[in-house]
Amino acid sequence: MHDGSHQQITDLKQAAEHIRTARRILVIGCSGGGKSTLSLEIARRFGLSYISLDRDVYWLPGWVTRDRVEQRMIIATRILEERWIMDGTNPSSLDIRLPRTDFVVWVRMQRLVCMWGAISRWPKWIGRTRPEMAPGCIEKIDLEFLRFIWTFEEKLAPRLVAGIAEHGPDVPVLELKSRAQMRELLDLLGPPD
Questions:
Q1: Which pLDDT tens digit goes with each residue over 50-65?
Q2: What is the pTM (predicted TM-score) of this model?
Q3: What InterPro entries does the record point to (predicted)?
């Protein structure tokens, strides 16, 4: 147990075993850390349906935010599915997401890594929409987004820790803190079938 708040998994081999057998996985963490890339990769390898909070719940075309009540209804419906990987951090829905989750991967990279991740993908997607985003949400970077990344650890991380402790104290959590760890985990998971 990690300071009594949640079941911390530190051994990557053990984490890989959890992922192999999990039916429902939650991937949380700061933008730019590599959540979506990792989620899509795991979804592909294990035939889990990929649910992106950004694409499927939060955003409507043209960066319009969907109504909160509707957001919650979509999440409540999607979590009832048998097998999924859900890519998205939003602490306010942890109360309904965690009880349905077998395993949590917290992509917890240093903020400079996240900043670089977000900034370096931008030129690749200029004028286009990333596959994990809602249609018509053309890739953009603004100060608000960079500030969100910069302050993520101080503002959102404590809410995530508290949310996990309250709503998923028995759900094992793996924190990935470097690109090397992420690569190692993917290697341990083996090639896609």
A1: 999 999 999 999 999 9
A2: 0.94
A3: Cytidylate_Kinase-2, P-loop_NTPase
